[in-house]
Design brief:
Strand order of the largest sheet: 10-6-1-2-3-16
CATH superfamily of the largest domain: ATPase, nucleotide binding domain
Radius of gyration: 20 Å
Number of domains: 2
Oligomer: single chain
Number of strands: 16
Order of helices and strands: HEEEEEHEEHEEHEHHEEEHHHEHEEH
Bound molecules: adenosine-5'-triphosphate, magnesium ion
Strand content: 25-35%
Helix content: 25-40%
Distance between the termini: 37 Å
Length: about 350
Amino acid sequence: MAASLKEQLDDLLAKLNPGGVFGIDIGAHSIKVCEISGTPGKFKVDKFGTYVLSEAAIIEDQIQKPEELIEGVLEAMKRAGIKSKVACIGLYGPNTMTKRLNVPEGTNEEIEDHIMWEAEQYITFGADESQVGFHIIGDNEGGGKDALVAAARNELIENFSKILTEAKINPKIVDLNILSLSNVFEEVYRDELDEYSQGTLLLDFGAQTTKILVYKRNGPIFTKELPIGGGLITEEIQRQMGVSYEEAEDLKTTTDENGNLPDEILTIINNQVDQTLAEVKKNINFYISQGSAEKVSYCFVTGGASLSPGLVEKLAALTGLEVKSLSIFPSIKIDQKKAEAGLEQLSAVSAIAVGLAMRKIN
Ligand SMILES: Nc1ncnc2c1ncn2[C@@H]1O[C@H](COP(=O)(O)OP(=O)(O)OP(=O)(O)O)[C@@H](O)[C@H]1O
Ligand SMILES: [Mg+2]
């Protein structure tokens, strides 16, 4: 009885506050949940929590350990103190896509028809089995409008939504993590956006994937997900040192009193970072070559693996760009007490979830 009354109250609260969603990013390494308040330019992170997953709980976008994910969502919410039952979830992987399209002028309906008609060609996982959304960025210099199209395969949406509904959460908004990255970037650098809109590279170094986003002319012009990430470092530590996944994760980040890692760990990190960055470079050559019409001038990195020692410096050397961490604080306010792990670490792992939580205001 008591439980059902509580459930009814929770439902009622959700209805009274229909725009109030919290953001949830179910990453390969950890689940992040975030609730924010305020309005653009004055956002504040009120609640943030994480839950670190065990090895291979998710592989690519396939959920291998649903029970653990359900428990992880609830535990992360509990740690954060999130009571809301309505979420904005971020999806990623090969069954999602974004594309910038030049569309002819027209009514919203005409533009939608045009986009759906073209969708067949670029939604490789099947336009008719997907949810497709779009957003008009603005006028295209060459005429018509610039639209940002996003799509996710129904099956993927269902699989991730099911985790939430089993945790008694309503996945009210489905977003893409890559778009969340773009949104959080726009929010953090809202005052300098004119400059950054000339061409900025955003990179999210996660556990299983590295996300590339080229931001130009007021929105993403190129996005790509590479199937490589910080997890490769963990795997290599496991293999070379004969330790478990958890032990390897620990070894990767446990420094001595001077902040240094043991040499053998550092060597593994260096090798993997070099490989990952070489792969990134291949994919962005067009955007960093001298004389390229689409050249970018700035670069920001985020994601847990962006904290790997030497990564920022190596990336700068490789691209010729000034590389900075996407520091979401203090542009977005946070209670210092919530930042136990340190703002730098928190900023790197939380950016996507914060961007998803921002969706309630849009
Ligand atoms: N200080 C650190 N130095 C190096 N690597 C780190 C550090 N902190 C976290 N990592 C690594 O970052 C990765 C987790 O980052 P993040 O939380 O961004 O990934 P995720 O969102 O769960 O994964 P994905 O985006 O691939 O789905 C792990 O591989 C973890 O070992
Ligand atoms: Mg991630």
